[in-house]
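Morning run. Coffee first, then this:
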Amino acid sequence: MADRDEEDDDRYDKPSKSQRKRDAHAVQDLGETLIGLRDSDLVALDLPEILVDAIREARRIPTRGGGARQRQYIGKLMRDIDPEPIRAALSAHSAQSALESERFKRLEAWRERLVIEGAPALDELERWRPGLERAEWMRRISAAQSERERGSTGTAGRELFRALRALFEVEP
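And here it is:
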């Protein structure tokens, strides 16, 4: 009877088949996320070369069935790799992307405000960032305003955005 209890204990030390399947699917899902990354981001993760090659190959496969097999292969390769550093790097990358997106939206809002309000918005911008060359900024703003009145999407709005980006890159 004691031998049977020890046998039962040994049998349950390993993960169940269901747990192994869930783990395999989670790693395969992580592999699909890696397929969606740009090459520069993929190289930054410092993955094994065989895995990077499999991911690049998966991007080139046009058929659904072939792509599914390639994703399964990527999942198989990833079982030998600790996925936590990859998840952490992807999370950090996602956070960085969110910050960049927020920064872009803030700059876009300033440009809109400068074009719509003109001098009052420039006064507030000057309070936030003292030392602006007011005449140069007014020239940019009026060029963007006249461009908008014409209904064109020329370079004045982009120039104003670039100037704002350069101004906000130096945090006070």
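Residues 27 and 79 are 7 Å apart (CA to CA). Good start to the day.
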